[in-house]
Automatic annotation (TrEMBL):
This is Probable malate:quinone oxidoreductase. The gene is mqo. Belongs to the MQO family. Keywords: FAD, Flavoprotein, Membrane, Oxidoreductase, Transmembrane, Transmembrane helix, Tricarboxylic acid cycle. The chain crosses the membrane at residues 7-24. One of its GO terms (molecular function) is (S)-2-hydroxyglutarate dehydrogenase activity.
Length: 490
């Protein structure tokens, strides 16, 4: 029979480790969990509010989740999959509120309508077909669609003000979209766990090595960045939740599975507006279509954000060049990750993705004026002086070796040792919104027998829909009735 993990080390204090800590503790209350974070505060890398867009990715508005084939058919399978994962996250966050891990949903989540917006004949036809396909599914049955500029104006006046009235436009609107402060959610979860004495969390502690011991356990070398001293911590399960830094730590473990992966960093930048006259007229997250050659995470969007009670509008992300794997990382990160075993497929990937390379070079060369010009596609009356540039989080695009070819992976990848004793989460899309399903997948991969047997019923106490399918309209209605109330979405 599969053994319950007893001593666990989680590397990094972002949303992924926070989520896994709480799930593991509920599944096995005897477990000893130690979390090490190299920064002097928690949730301040990718999970921090302004480092990501804060979109509760539920596929209501993200057009890259619904690709169109050559015959014009819109495939909504990925959108359904992501929407299901987001419902799972909402159930889990509701459980955290009901069980006093989080005091109030407003601390991290706000209802913010999600819109898709397009212009031009082709894209309008695409959005109409997307709406027709999606609105038949219970997860999207409340979606509204319009090609009428006056209707769109009632949803988001700034995106139509100043636009040529003859231009063909279309939009969809989902009232129950969300904006989420994942940094705050991370801190709330860890605060709840620490108050209940359920984890040991040490900040300013960097994991510098991970080595397999002869008894099969792992020796995790942890450096106290304040004193400079290092200590070994033994674990029978290690989760590398180090965000962009995960690939470097995974490589240190030496597990054969790590040799098939490499990464390429893509920095992000926002345009931000805090002019009250402008921001008070917009309340939605508006997603458009990505530029040709752009990676899926570069879909432009205009977002209402409320962070620490202060409202802003954010537009982007624009790509910026950096060799760091973390915003607070080292310029040597990319070079350190290139090994004899991965250099071949990494170069092959570069050569086969010239359109992405071209896109990144163009982005890096964009001046602020050019960025505001692209913002005017969404906000025709945008003024240069109302917007400032701000660095967003760092992403590491995962590259997998598939028979000597380097293939870019745009989702998240869970890489685990064959015996399930160590696992890492690579990639950042759809990201924090689907952190609960991602962590359930880690457990399925590392502890398949426990998940099927002893742990199965406990998971259902945290996620009532576990094992059921959100294709069922009654389940969607029941689940949303609970989460909309607890999370104050409707
Ligand atoms: C520009 C951008 C926009 C995004 N938009 C969205 C969005 O709208 N919606 C969404 O759901 N997701 C979004 N994401 C993705 C989301 O931010 C990430 O998927 C999520 O925050 C990752 O969480 P994490 O816990 O894995 O990593 P992080 O939050 O980065 O946490 C990792 C932690 O590990 C620490 N660490 C690293 N190495 C070590 C080490 N060796 N020892 C100790 N500690 C270490 C780091 O300091 C960090 O605190 C976006 C990301 C970016 C970059």
């Amino acid at each position: 029979m599969e053994k319950q993990p007893q001593e666990v080390v989680l590397i990094g204090a972002g949303i992924m480790s926070a989520t896994l800590s709480i799930i593991l503790k509920k599944l096995n209350p005897e477990i000893k969990i130690s979390v090490f974070e190299k920064l002097d505060k928690i949730g301040f890398e990718s999970s921090e509010a302004f480092n990501n867009a804060g979109t509760g990715h539920s596929a209501f508005c993200e057009l890259n989740y619904t690709p169109q084939d050559k015959n014009g058919n819109v495939d909504i399978a990925k959108a359904i999959d992501i929407a299901k994962q987001f419902e799972t996250s909402k159930e889990f966050w509701s459980y955290l509120i009901d069980n006093n891990y989080i005091s109030s949903p407003e601390n991290f989540l706000r209802k913010t309508p999600h819109m898709s917006f397009v212009w031009g004949e082709n894209d309008v036809n695409f959005l109409r077909k997307r709406y027709e396909a999606m609105s038949k599914h219970p997860l999207f049955s409340d979606m509204e669609y319009s090609e009428d500029i006056e209707q769109i104006k009632t949803w988001a006046p700034l995106i139509v003000n100043g636009r040529d009235p003859k231009e063909k436009v279309a939009a969809t609107f989902m009232e129950i979209g969300t904006d989420i402060n994942f940094g705050e959610l991370t801190r709330e979860i860890f605060k709840g766990l620490q108050n209940k004495g359920e984890v040991t969390l040490e900040t300013s502690h960097e994991v510098t090595d991970v080595t397999r011991l002869s008894n099969g356990k792992w020796a995790v070398k942890v450096k106290d960045l304040k004193s400079g001293n290092s200590k070994p911590v033994n674990a029978d399960f290690v989760f590398i939740g180090a965000g962009g830094g995960a690939i470097l730590t995974l490589q240190k473990s030496g597990i054969p599975e790590s040799k098939n992966f490499g990464g390429f960093p893509v920095g992000g930048q926002w345009l931000i507006c805090q002019n009250k006259e402008v921001i008070d007229k917009h309340f939605a997250k508006v997603y458009g279509k990505a530029q040709l050659g752009a990676p899926p995470m570069s879909v432009p969007h205009l977002d209402t954000r409320v962070i620490d009670g202060k409202k802003s509008l954010l537009f982007g992300p624009f790509a910026v060049f950096s060799t760091k794997f973390l915003k607070e990382g080292s310029n040597l990160d990319l070079f350190k990750s290139v090994k004899l075993g991965n250099v071949g497929f990494l170069m092959n990937c570069g050569l086969n993705n010239m359109d992405l390379t071209k896109y990144l070079i163009e982005q890096v060369l964009l001046s602020k004026e050019k960025k505001v010009e692209s913002l005017r596609d969404y906000l025709p009356e945008a003024k240069l002086e109302d917007w400032f540039e701000q660095t967003a989080g760092q992403r590491v695009q995962v590259i997998e070796n598939q028979g000597g070819k380097g293939v870019l992976k745009f989702g998240t990848e869970i890489v685990a040792a064959q015996d399930g004793s160590i696992a890492a989460l690579l990639g950042a899309s759809p990201g924090a919104s689907t952190s609960v399903s991602a962590m359930i997948n880690v457990l399925n991969k590392c502890f398949p027998e426990l998940m099927k047997n002893q742990w199965n019923e406990s998971i259902k106490t945290m996620i009532p829909s576990f094992g059921k399918d959100f294709n069922d309209a009654t389940l969607v209605a029941e689940s949303r009735a609970k989460t909309n109330t607890t999370l104050k979405i409707k």
